[in-house]
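Write out the bound-state structure for glycine.
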Amino acid sequence: MLYRISLIILSIIFISCSEIDTSVEKKQKNPLKTNAKQHDFALVIHGGAGYLSPKNDADKEHNALKTTMDSLLIMGKTMLEKGGEAIDVVTKVITIMEDDPRFNAGKGAVFANNGKNELDASIMHGKDLNAGAVAGVTNIKHPILAAKEVMTSSRHVFMAGQGAEQFAEEQGLTLVDNKYFFTQNKFERLEKAKKQSSKSSMRSDYLPDEKYGTVGCVALDKKGNIVAGTSTGGLTNKQYNRIGDSPVIGAGTYADNRTCGVSCTGVGEFFIRYAVAHEMSSQYRYTDKTIQEIGDDIINKTLKDINADGGLIALDKYGNVAMPFNTTAMLRGYINEEEKVVALFH
Ligand code: GLY
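---
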């Protein structure tokens, strides 16, 4: 009899515990997140957040940029559709953007206060959280490839200055004279920034009409690997070997197959202080919010409230995309098996 009563009590306890567990789980699950659509693959890219106006008669220029983004997305889609690896897509896309003088990365890098171009880049693989970054390099033609070499061919994560340049040379990467990065319009922006820097604050160093900036790319491949990469010349008129968020893992770039991949653009000081890219991943992991909700909260509330200009692109592990920005424009685009979007303004 006692045995039967014990069994009944145990069953009641077991049933109530299961009910409690299930109800807690149900409460924690946001249907928008848990029923998130699975994409076989996805790709998102940005050409920087900045201050452009749709009324500045530059339609031709803007359309040409959007056409470039469109071709990059189609190229990336072709690679991913065939089973290409996210790492190869991210490095290919960013290498092409680094060759394009219209972007603030590689060839088109902006000028530091000392009249030189000092470049930063990073990349991260979501499978094993391996990562590589270079900062303040002055003669590496494709900083994103140097970041990749740091990740794949060294025991380190982050290399800077001459050491990073020596490492890149040893890996057989293309080196160039710093003059390779000269572009007249970026040089004129330095002169303009220097003139206005008497009333310098972090924000005024970011010219009110700052154009296309940093470049970034996040890809999810058919194996479920997420890779994120970012490359930049930093901010015009930066001083004292200033390094921004782009090469800082967790600030400008982050990828984790369990959560999402992120690449940021904007005034790097804020993105470092708020560890924005890692914050996206943490909130995705530990809260019920969707990738769009998290991105929007961080960019349009947390950062906007402190006048921190910028934006980000992100893909969650299902291929859902977020592209929030709090400036007037961010050149951006994404593609998956059924949809392609390219945009510049809100
Ligand atoms: N987000 C680019 C930089 O601040 O350098």
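---
The longest helix spans residues 2-28.
The chain has ten helices and twelve strands.
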